[in-house]
């Protein structure tokens, strides 16, 4: 059992540095908060070490006992947290590939996390993110996934190249768009489908829309505007795998 | 044209006080940020006064010109904001009542705002919130509505009483629940329907579930867990008014 009491301890500094994307990219590590997420990470074999300010035995391999002040310094939550885990980024591969989503520049970490959580609920096989989609390993995004990031491959890549590869592989690629588009009822389910969701303000890039096989809009009246995580939920529900 | 340069000015203090729910409740006022929301508020006749640090003519009745430091003090956004409006809470009444949602203890302001935004997109007529649902006029909730709060009545009331009244009025009241419930495909659309969504952790209170005419779940595999705003989106889309 290792105890740390100084805010200046080098480990504490290393943990805090993981709040920055650059450090997460360099180390392949990220932080999660709370026991629920830690257990999901443990089951996925992604736990590196665990930090707590509670004196109790924990079912994790390497535990550091720290002061509440250190805990507060490492935590990104407003409310009190008693368990933080340092995790290795999961490296999952899709077992099969019939339903995928492509996220083209989604900016809000809450939306990103929620889309991943929804994808797994409707048995989607993978989530692909453009280079300019926000970082999955930021605190808000991780929390919004509710642990789903340990169960579904999330892959960052060039979406233009990906779309071509998916099409070669027999996928019907569908971009969400309000213009010149079909409703969900007008686009029948097929074996292999990929859906592209865009940035909160700009939507899907025009060049990606042009590569897609079809364009889809969600039938609605009035406001003509849905949050991207809600739109994603409706589309993934409508084309869910059973 | 009125100018304010002191951070200690009594108006500045009054505006900042509106960050607190108690002050918003007492005054019936709240703050919105950015030109898009201000225009929605203006169209709805809810603008009391506008605050800006930019020297340009604005199409609002009463404008205060302030320093960037004052602007920063009043704003709740991380990024720079150049227009803040003090608004009166809208007092809308539903024109007709065929589709409504009931929010039973929704805690996250982003979820609340998103549910309201979605409700208007699918032509729902009103949103009812339990007393313990989070405040609609908090900055995050207002932003998540994207202005929808100026277009749809949002009413805070006792949901148990409301359910009884809706049922007298011919509504079919449906609680979302994972247990002993029917899927969307099993519950046909009727003329008057009310859907209850619950707290992010606990779901719909058991006593409210017991009052409902039916229980609904969203058909899914795997994770068995959806964000409440996503669940709301799928249900409202499925029972949208055309």
Could you list some keywords that capture this structure?
seven-stranded parallel beta sheet; five-stranded mixed beta sheet; alpha/beta; 32% helix; homodimer; 242 residues
List the helices and strands and how they pair.
The structure is a homodimer of 242-residue chains.
Chain A: E1 2-4, H1 10-17, H2 21-27, E2 29-33, H3 35-43, E3 47-52, E4 63-66, H4 68-74, E5 83-88, E6 99-104, H5 109-121, E7 126-129, H6 139-145, E8 154-156, H7 159-168, E9 172-176, E10 182-183, E11 193-198, H8 206-211, E12 214-217, H9 228-238
Parallel strand pairs in A: 1-4, 3-4, 6-7, 6-11, 7-8, 9-11, 9-12, 10-12
Antiparallel strand pairs in A: 2-5, 3-5
Percent range for β-strand residues of chain A? 15-25%
Q: Percent range for helical residues of chain A?
A: 25-40%
Extended strand count of chain A: 12
Overall 3D shape of chain A: elongated
- How far apart lie the N and C ends of chain A? 47 Å
Q: Quaternary state, please? A: homodimer
Radius of gyration of chain A: 20 Å
Largest interface: A-B, 32 and 32 residues
Instruction: Please tell me the overall pLDDT of chain A.
Output: 94
Largest sheet of chain A: 7 strands, parallel
**Which H/E pattern describes the elements of chain A?**
EHHEHEEHEEHEHEHEEEHEH
């Amino acid at each position: 059992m290792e105890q740390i009491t100084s805010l200046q301890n080098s480990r504490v500094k290393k943990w805090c540095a993981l709040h920055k994307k650059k450090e997460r990219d360099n180390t392949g590590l990220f932080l999660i908060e709370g026991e629920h997420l830690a257990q999901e990470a443990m089951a996925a074999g992604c736990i590196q070490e665990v930090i707590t300010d509670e004196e109790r035995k924990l079912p994790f391999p390497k535990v550091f006992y720290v002061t509440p002040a250190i805990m507060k310094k490492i935590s990104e939550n407003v409310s009190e947290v008693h368990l933080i885990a340092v995790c290795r980024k999961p490296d999952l591969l899709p077992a099969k590939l019939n339903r995928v989503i492509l996220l083209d520049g989604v900016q809000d970490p809450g939306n990103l996390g929620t889309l991943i959580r929804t994808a797994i609920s409707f048995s989607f096989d993978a989530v692909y993110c453009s280079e300019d989609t926000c970082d999955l390993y930021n605190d808000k995004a991780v929390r919004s996934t509710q642990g789903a990031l340990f169960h579904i491959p999330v892959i960052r890549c060039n979406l233009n190249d990906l779309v071509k590869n998916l099409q070669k592989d027999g996928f019907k690629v569908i971009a969400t768009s309000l213009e010149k588009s079909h409703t969900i009822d007008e686009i029948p389910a097929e074996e292999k489908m990929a859906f592209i969701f865009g940035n909160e303000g700009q939507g899907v890039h025009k060049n990606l829309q042009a590569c897609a096989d079809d364009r889809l809009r969600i039938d609605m009246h009035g406001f003509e505007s849905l949050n991207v995580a809600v739109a994603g939920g409706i589309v993934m529900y409508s084309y869910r795998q059973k």
